[in-house]
Design goal:
It contains three helices and seven strands. By secondary structure, the chain is an alpha+beta fold. Strands 1, 2, 3, 4, 5, 6 and 7 form a seven-stranded mixed β-sheet that branches.
Length: about 140
Amino acid sequence: MEELYAILKLRTDVFAVEQQAVYQDLDGKDQAAMHLMGHDEGRLVAYCRLIPAGVAFSEASIGRVVTAATHRNTGTGKLLFQQALDLCREYFGELPIRIGAQRYLTGFYSSFGFELAGPVYLEDGIEHVHMVRKGGGNVQQ
């Protein structure tokens, strides 16, 4: 229960409060997802969910990628995302991964081998793009 609360609080703090986006966070995908959490001194500071193919997209997906404001620009998000990619490969195999990325983060995701896969679209008032990473080798930072 404590982990669930910490996850929902971090997601709400960043996506709803900081980014002022009114959206339905509880979208029915969490139950099918694996949840990756990064802690610092017992506090949740980074999080994402790994979603199997056929739930969000026909490909596997990584979503709700979030880092607490206190831990941005420290490498925490890069470390978490690399771990997410490693776990996707371990659990889902060498399959493509599709994400719905906030547009301003395309450079971050490109550094992990993701490529643009569609036009810009608005989601909850924020510009997003689909990006895909083909299955295959590890991308080192």
